[in-house]
Design goal:
- There is one protein chain.
- By secondary structure, the chain is α/β, with parallel strands linked by helices.
- It has two domains: 15-193, Rossmann fold (3-Layer(aba) Sandwich); 241-342.
- It contains 15 helices and seven strands.
- The protein has helices spanning 25-36, 54-67, 71-74, 87-93, 120-131, 152-163, 183-187, 199-207, 218-228, 232-238, 242-252, 258-265, 274-297, 302-321, 325-342, and strands spanning 43-47, 100-103, 107-108, 113-114, 140-145, 169-175, 190-193.
- The strands form two sheets. A five-stranded parallel sheet has the order 2-5-6-1-7, sandwiched between helices. Strands 3-4 form a two-stranded antiparallel ribbon.
- A hairpin with a 4-residue loop joins strand 3 (107-108) and strand 4 (113-114).
- It is elongated and about 65 Å long.
C-alpha cells in the first residue's frame, strides 16, 4: 500500500510553533490594544508580501486570545507573548486546539501534492465550526492562510460567516495581495498592512530556525537574505536554489550578450527545474519592476515598464503551456537587455 502524501507545511518551523515574532511591533501592539479595550473587532486582514510573518502574527494572536481570553487580564501584558509551556500554546502548536480552525489548502492524496485552491467544502467548515459552542468557553478563532488561495465559491462561503459572526468569534485573514480579495470580505475586515523586514530582522528569523531547516554556508544565507527583500520565507526558498544562483549570475553581469543569456538559461533545461524556474522568474520580474520604477523617477521608465509586462507575460505563458523554459529565459534576458539600453 502506497504511503500517504505528507503535508509539506508540517515542519518544525511552521508559524503555529513560533515562539518569537521579529518586526511588526506596531501591528502587534494594535491587536493587543484592541483586545485590551474589550471591543475587539471580529475580522482582521493581515496583508503584505509573502513570507514576512503574517501567519506567525496570526497564530501568535490566536494563542494569546486562547490563553488570555479576558480583556482585563490582557491589560497586564505589553506584547502578545505567552509561554510555550502554556496549554494554549501547546495545543495550537500541535494543531489540536478545539477552538481554533485553520482554513487552508488541503492535501490531494491522489495527486500527491497540495491542492491549488481552498475548496468550498473547506471554507464551509467555518459555518460548522462557529455553530458549535466554544470548548473552553472563550474565543473561537479561524485563521485563513492564505486568502489568496480562495476561489469564488469558497470566498463567498467564507463571507457568509464573516457577515454574521457569532459572539466571541475572530477571523484572522492572511493575504498576500489584498487587492484580489473579494471586496465584500475586505470591507468587513479591519485592515492591517504589514511591511517587509529589514535584512537584520530577516537574518534573525533564519538563525533561530532549527539546524536542519537551513543547511547552507553563512555566505549563501546572507546572499539569500539580500535577495529576499525582507521576506524570511522567500529567503528559505532561495537558499540552495539553482534559480537563485542563476539570478545571481545575471546580477554579476554588467552587460548581457546572447551567449551569456543562453549560459544563464541553461540552468532550466531539465524537467525537474520547475521550482528553480519559478524562483528565477519571481526574482527577475521583481528586479525589473524596481528598475522600471527607478527609471520612471528620471522620466525614462517607459521601455523598462513595457519590458516588465512583456517578460512577466512570457514567463507565465511558458509555465502555463509547458514551453521550453531555457528558450523563454533567454528571450526574457535579451528583452530586458534591450530595455536597459533604451532607458
Amino acid at each position: 500500500m502506497a504511503e500517504d502524501f505528507k503535508d509539506p507545511r508540517d515542519v518544525a518551523w511552521h508559524p503555529r510553533r513560533a515562539t518569537e515574532l521579529f518586526g511588526h511591533k506596531a501591528t502587534e501592539a494594535r491587536l493587543l490594544q484592541a483586545h485590551q479595550s474589550g471591543k475587539l473587532h471580529h475580522a482582521w486582514l493581515l496583508s503584505g508580501p509573502r513570507g514576512i510573518g503574517k501567519a506567525t502574527l496570526a497564530y501568535r494572536f490566536a494563542k494569546f486570545l486562547l490563553q488570555v481570553p479576558n480583556a482585563h487580564g490582557a491589560r497586564a501584558h505589553t506584547a502578545l507573548h505567552i509561554a510555550p509551556e502554556g496549554h494554549a500554546f501547546r495545543q495550537v502548536a500541535a494543531a489540536s486546539h478545539p477552538d481554533l480552525l485553520v482554513i487552508e489548502r488541503a492535501v490531494d492524496q491522489r495527486a500527491k501534492r497540495l491542492k491549488t485552491e481552498i475548496a468550498v467544502d473547506d471554507a464551509r467548515e467555518a459555518q460548522n465550526f462557529f455553530a458549535r459552542t466554544s470548548g473552553a468557553g472563550g474565543w473561537r478563532i479561524a485563521i485563513v492562510d492564505a486568502a489568496d488561495d480562495l476561489n469564488s465559491e469558497s470566498a463567498n462561503a467564507l463571507l457568509k460567516v464573516i457577515e454574521e459572526p457569532p459572539k466571541q468569534s475572530i477571523f484572522l485573514v492572511v493575504c498576500n495581495q489584498p487587492g484580489r480579495l473579494l471586496r465584500t470580505i475586505r470591507s468587513r475586515c479591519l485592515h492591517l498592512p504589514m511591511g517587509s523586514l529589514s535584512n537584520d530582522e530577516t537574518l534573525k528569523v533564519i538563525r533561530q530556525l532549527p539546524a536542519d531547516a537551513v543547511e547552507a554556508e553563512e555566505g549563501a544565507v546572507r546572499e539569500a537574505v539580500e535577495l529576499s527583500r525582507g521576506s524570511p520565507g522567500k529567503a528559505l526558498d532561495l537558499i540552495g536554489s539553482r534559480g537563485a544562483a542563476a539570478f545571481g549570475e545575471f546580477m554579476k553581469r554588467s552587460k548581457l550578450s546572447p551567449a551569456t543569456a543562453v549560459e544563464i538559461a541553461a540552468a532550466f533545461s531539465g524537467r525537474e527545474t520547475a521550482e528553480d524556474y519559478h524562483v528565477f522568474c519571481e526574482l527577475l520580474v521583481g528586479w525589473t519592476a524596481e528598475q522600471a520604477r527607478a527609471a520612471g523617477l528620471r522620466g525614462a521608465g517607459e521601455s523598462l515598464a513595457r519590458a516588465h509586462d512583456d517578460i512577466n507575460a512570457s514567463l507565465r505563458q511558458a509555465d502555463a503551456l509547458n514551453l521550453d523554459r531555457r528558450q523563454t529565459v533567454t528571450d526574457a534576458l535579451m528583452r530586458l537587455e534591450e530595455a536597459l539600453k533604451a532607458s
